[in-house]
Amino acid sequence: MKKSILLASLFYSFVEYLSFFIVTSLFTPLILAQNSLYKDPFNLIKEPELLLGVILGVYGLGIFLGAPLLGKWSDHKNRKQALQISMALNILGNFGVGIFFASANVWMMIFFRFITGLGSSGAQLLYNVVQDMESEEKKRGKAMGYLVAVSSFATVLGPAFGTLFAGDSGIMLGIPFFVLGFFGMCSMLFTHLSFGQNATAHKGKHQSFLEIFTKPEVLIVGISYFLFLLIAESLFVAIPIVMVLGFDVSSDWIALFFAYGGLVSVFTGTFILPCISRFFSVRLAYLTSLLGLTLSLFSFFLSSTPEELFVPFTFFALFATLAWSKGNELILAVAEKKNTGIIMGVFGSLIALAVLLASLFMGYFATLSSLLPLLVLCIMGLINFAVAVLSYRKLARQSS
Fold first, then answer.
1. What angle do CA 73, 79, 80 make, to 5 degrees?
2. What CATH number does residue 337 fall under?
3. Rounded Cα–Cα distance for residues 115 and 59 (Å)
4. CB 372 within 8 A of CB 366
């Protein structure tokens, strides 16, 4: 695999994941403030927590609709075209959010966050690019580890990126999104120059979106992976709400908190993942990571100050990174080569659905109690681990 293609893929991944994490610390305090300017003028969404959930969750709806279509396009045409279309939409969405965030127009913010979500649906296809262009297993695993590390680094920079560049009012509030749109244009150029034609269309009959789940291994991985994603995305929504409502922290504090967790993820993806891969099978590593993830969720209840939240978040970031990487390896292991774009697109939709449901449910649960979202997460963690244990022998038999 050429270094130029790998670097273009890594930068592409960075831009698209940054598009999600940029809003976490920037939107939460402004929307939940007592005298917030960000209100629904039609009064359809009265509770600010629910409004926050809608703004965050509609991004996932965009990915949900766009990922399968782009995945199928990439199988029938080529990866490069699908990636370029995705990034073009990402650029449009970020510029739109920046403009209407500055004018406090919440419904236009919702619309352009949806467009940004459509444009972020190509990130999952980068794993297909690595699989297509790297035949050596060890190098392929290393490249996928880099993709995980870059997406984790976006969690470091994302929340801080938003609060660092945003001004106090007016058009200055939209600067982080304008900068991100410029990064997107750079990524499109880098991809165009690096990928060449990248013809990856496979001959033969391609399965439909639903047919891929007729294979038991794919269905099992899909259920478990979706539950993991729902837990991870829910925590990203629940923790800022707990911090603001329970501890009255600022945007800078939330940014610092997520930056720390992102650094843990980067360290895990760069150093711990290669060691785990060397001594554990993919399915055993995935199962172990789910157990650690569940235990870390329960440990959040032991924290009584914002500072104490760093300890459970350390373990959550570590095990979530392992589960993310090994989950993607399982997906590629059970997929037929001619349908890898479709299956990664469908699993990209699972990510989107998790983002959408997490934002809506966590926002709703927070209106009942600030700690209820954490309790729900613990229950979900137990269910997911139980599903993985019961189906252990069937999880990605092709990966052993």
1. 115
2. 1.20.1250.20
3. 8
4. yes
CA distance 303 to 375: 14
Per DSSP, helices labelled H in the chain are 3-21, 24-32, 48-76, 79-102, 106-119, 126-133, 137-165, 175-195, 216-247, 251-267, 273-279, 282-299, 310-334, 340-368, 372-390
Q: Specify the 3-state DSSP secondary structure of 215.
A: coil
Token pair recorded at residue 148:
């995980």
> What would the two tokens of residue 134 be?
């790297």
CA-nearest of 298, 303, 300, 277 to 288 is: 277
| Per-residue model confidence as pLDDT tens digits over 301-352 | 888 888 899 999 999 999 998 888 888 777 777 666 656 667 777 777 777 7
Q: Extract the tokens encoding 122.
A: 């190509």
Let me know the angle formed at the C-alpha of 80 by 76 and 83, rounded to the nearest 5 degrees.
Answer: 100
Place of tokens 């449009």: 92
* Residue 199 confidence (pLDDT): 43
More confident residue, 281 or 392: 281
- The two structure tokens encoding residue 29: 């305090």
Q: How many helices (H) and strands (E) does the chain have?
A: 15, 0
What SS3 state is found at 252? helix
Residue-number span of the structural domain to which 317 is assigned: 3-199+207-399
Specify the 3-state DSSP secondary structure of 19: helix
Give the H/E segment covering residue 27.
helix 24-32
Residue 50 has pLDDT above 90, yes or no: no
pLDDT(193) > 50:
yes
The pLDDT of residue 293: 94
Q: Which residue, among 119, 122, 95, 90, has the nearest Cα to 108 in the 3D structure?
A: 95
Q: Which residue has the tokens 């060449």?
A: 196
How many separate domains does the chain show?
A: 1
Q: Residue 66 in contact with residue 121, Cβ under 8 Å? A: yes
Lowest mean pLDDT among 71-75, 215-219, 244-248: 215-219
User: Does residue 203 register a pLDDT over 90?
Assistant: no
C-alpha dihedral over 294, 298, 152, 136, to 10 degrees? Answer: -20
Amino acid sitting at position 17: Y
